[in-house]
Design a protein that fits this description.
elongated; mainly alpha; 560 residues; 2 domains; Methane Monooxygenase Hydroxylase, Chain G, domain 1; 26 helices
């Protein structure tokens, strides 16, 4: 083979390997659904759990970049603390070494092509015959990706072996280790996959094109090269996103510099103390050791390190959003999760606003741990009612704008969920507007010396408090409410409306009340019903599945 043929074969191998990694990532991500994200959220209560979660998820998905981008989105959203986000990233760096072990053992020690070719055949066949079925489609992706991964590796191996025969690499053996460090950084910065860099390096090492120390230096360079993607993703983002990206950069630079300074002793320990003679196994052992060392070194200092990162980048974001400001629509699944959290935050604050207008104690709602921390940080509780209303209007606008960006990115089966969430936000704002519209009526009735009017206010205040207590319980409970429960609440809203109106008419006939007051009370009762109906629809759209939500009774705008 000519040198150019070998170079093109190497590039083809890299392309196949990258495509295979993409297919494997897509298949596992979709077959697992939300499980990995939920697993991460459950395990981030302490540093050890966060490291474990990052390691396990990355070991399965084999994409530390994807996990890091997920963390980047969630940390500013308040789902992960800065400290635990750093722990997850440490775990992700360790988890990605599993792929290196698979490549070094199966790819070079076993004739894996015997399984790779049938896997590609089976994957392609399933994709053509049953590609319209979601589960089968991603199983096909997995089989196709598995086969192509090792076929691509085979291309790289043959290209490297051919180049060793056609080209004298011995004159480069004495080059400075810094050069190989830079090579590793450049390759990983370009392909944005340390797994690809490892595969290329293992192929070169297997063919004898480079020495064991040079290969270790390339792997070290790749550690810092992986930070470029997350740095780029943080540009233009919030301060929290930039801090996470900066922390990840600090981690990897420190690891690279420390391991490079101790390169010879570490390699001697692997070969002489551990007794590992095979350079391929030695290289993946080296990669695992340095990432394990970074966990051990940094884990005790994550809290002060997180506080140190807080000194960088001022929080100048004027956005009302608490969650979607940290989301990237190019990661639609994560963005959808954050959009749901933002909608829940919007409904929560809408309920606080409506209760405050009625002069009802909002303390039970204010104790929500996540939303309370966000509102306290933003000094939401000290805002005037007009400022709170403007805040809600701005937040609804940001939700609507994000919805328009996200709706073209999510999968077809997720569109219904997205539409329900934006509908929940619109209904919640409608409830606020209706309540604000009768703000003066509420004040008038509360201060009235006329028993008829004051008694009506007292009755409606009690019923409103009970309604919002029930809705808040439904929002906070872990299990999904049944259809009948929401239907029952709606029936109660209707009955309360009719009862209040009928009682008022009866008392007005027997008492002395002015015509203007009658109009005021009728308007108040009607708009209150509209507000209650709208907030119930909002909760219904947020909590129920699509079919149940569609089956919910159409609620009239108002009754007279």
């Amino acid at each position: 083979m000519t040198m150019w043929t070998l170079i093109f074969k190497l590039f083809a191998g890299i392309g196949l390997f990258l495509f295979a990694m993409y297919l494997l990532e897509e298949s596992l991500k979709n077959l697992s659904g939300r499980n990995f994200k939920l697993f991460l959220q459950r395990t981030t209560k302490n540093r050890i759990g966060a490291v474990t979660g990052g390691t396990v998820v990355t070991a399965i998905l084999q994409s530390s970049s994807m996990v890091s981008l997920m963390v980047l989105a969630f940390v500013g959203a308040g789902v992960f603390s800065m400290k635990n986000a750093m722990a997850i990233i440490l775990g992700a760096n360790l988890g990605t070494t599993l792929d290196s072990w698979l490549v070094a053992t199966l790819g070079f020690k076993v004739d894996i092509e015997i399984a790779a070719y049938p896997a590609v055949f089976a994957g392609g066949l399933l994709l053509i015959l049953f590609g319209n079925r979601k589960t089968v489609k991603y199983i096909a992706y997995f089989l196709f990706g598995f086969g192509l991964l090792f076929i691509g590796l085979s291309f790289m191996k043959m290209a490297m072996e051919g180049q060793v025969k056609a080209f004298d690499f011995s004159k480069y053996a004495e080059m400075s280790m810094v050069v190989f460090l830079i090579i590793g950084f450049i390759i990983t910065s370009l392909v944005q996959s340390s797994s690809v860099t490892m595969a290329i390096t293992l192929s070169a090492l297997h063919a004898g094109a480079i020495t064991f120390p040079a290969a270790a230096a390339i792997v070290l360079g790749s550690e810092t090269g992986t930070t470029i993607k997350i740095l780029v993703a943080s540009l233009g983002g919030t301060a929290s996103k930039k801090r996470v990206a900066l922390g990840n950069l600090f981690f990897n630079i420190f690891l690279t510099v420390l391991a490079f300074a101790l390169l010879k002793p570490i390699l001697l320990m692997i070969t002489d103390v551990f007794g590992i003679i095979d350079p391929l196994i030695g290289l993946v052992t080296f990669s695992t050791l340095i990432n394990l060392a970074s966990v051990i070194i940094f884990l005790p200092f994550l809290e002060p390190f997180a506080k140190f990162l807080e000194k960088f980048f001022k929080d100048t974001d004027g956005s009302a959003a608490a969650f979607i400001g940290n989301a990237d629509t190019n990661e639609p699944e994560t963005a959808l999760d954050l959009f749901k959290k933002e909608t829940e935050y919007f409904i929560h604050n809408s309920m606080l606003y409506n209760l405050a207008l009625f002069d009802i104690d909002t303390k039970p709602l204010c104790e929500h741990p996540v939303f309370k921390a966000i509102n306290e940080k933003r000094k939401y509780f000290s805002k005037t009612m007009e400022e709170k209303y403007e805040f809600l209007k701005q937040l609804q606008g940001e939700l609507q704008s994000f919805y328009l960006s996200l709706r073209t990115k999510v999968k077809e089966e997720q569109n219904a969920s997205l539409s329900q969430l934006i509908s929940a936000a619109r209904s919640s704002m409608h409830a606020v507007k209706s309540m604000k519209g009768i703000g003066s009526n509420i004040a008038n009735l509360r201060r009235s010396s006329t028993d008829i009017k004051f008694n009506l206010f007292t009755q409606q205040k009690g019923e409103t408090e009970e309604l919002y207590k029930q809705l808040n319980t439904l929002m906070e409970q872990e299990t999904k409410p049944d259809f009948e429960k929401l239907q029952s609440i709606f029936t109660t809203i209707q009955d309360n409306y009719s009862s209040a109106l009928n009682n008022f008419y009866k008392e007005a006939q027997d008492g002395n009340i002015e015509d203007l007051d009658i109009t005021t009370v009728i308007n108040f009762n009607r708009e209150l019903f509209t507000s209650h109906k709208a907030i119930l629809i909002s909760v219904k759209d947020f909590l129920l599945e699509e079919k149940e939500a569609q089956g919910f009774n159409e609620i009239p705008v108002y009754k007279t």
